[in-house]
Specification:
By secondary structure, the protein is of the alpha+beta class. Helix content is about 25%, strand content about 45%. Strands 4-3-2-1-12-11-10 form a 7-stranded antiparallel sheet, covered by helices on one side. The protein has a 5-stranded antiparallel sheet with strand order 5-6-7-8-9.
Length: about 220
Amino acid sequence: MKKLILSSFIATAAALLPAMVFAADGKPLAQEVWRASGGENWGNVQTIDFTFAVVKNGKTVASATHHWNVPAQTDEVKWKGKDVTVNLADPGTGDDAKAAYARWVNDSYWLLAPLKLKDKGVTVEADGTKEINGAKREVLKLSFAQVGLTPNDQYRLYIDPESKLVTYWDYIPKGDKGMSGTWEDYRKTGGLTLSTNHKMHNGVQIRFENLKVTDK
């Protein structure tokens, strides 16, 4: 009887194993997405300038301007009448510094998410394929292990199988309703290939204006 139970267990485990391995193996696709977005050129990046703009009904309702010195690990952030230069390695405890750092975390992630796939603490899972807006897309699911300001957030990235660029994503914050949006209007600058326009399902757009990346 024990042999029968053991044999049954082994057979069940063997049947499940391929699916488990597939679900966990997102690294090859993540590598391709990272490379398509300019990941191999990241080490040459010196500065990134951009304005993160939230647009509703054709009107900009919020914006923040960034001058990010990548080697120096500083970001000058201008928003709501404030002008703060924050040390990204050690933001400090002041209210303005913490607020500027939070702006950098949020705004830069919307710009650079495909280049963050290989960061420490990021788990990537291949999640099969799905049709988005009539086109077949490869799917990556992202989760985080105590990374960033909201480590319980999750994302699904929908990737063009030919260009390996992200074309759509689902943002799934813990305890809140998620949102979905496009990744489009790609621009090449300073060795990076970045989306400058996200059209969200609720009619809001997130745009990256005055984008400029300088490299060595």
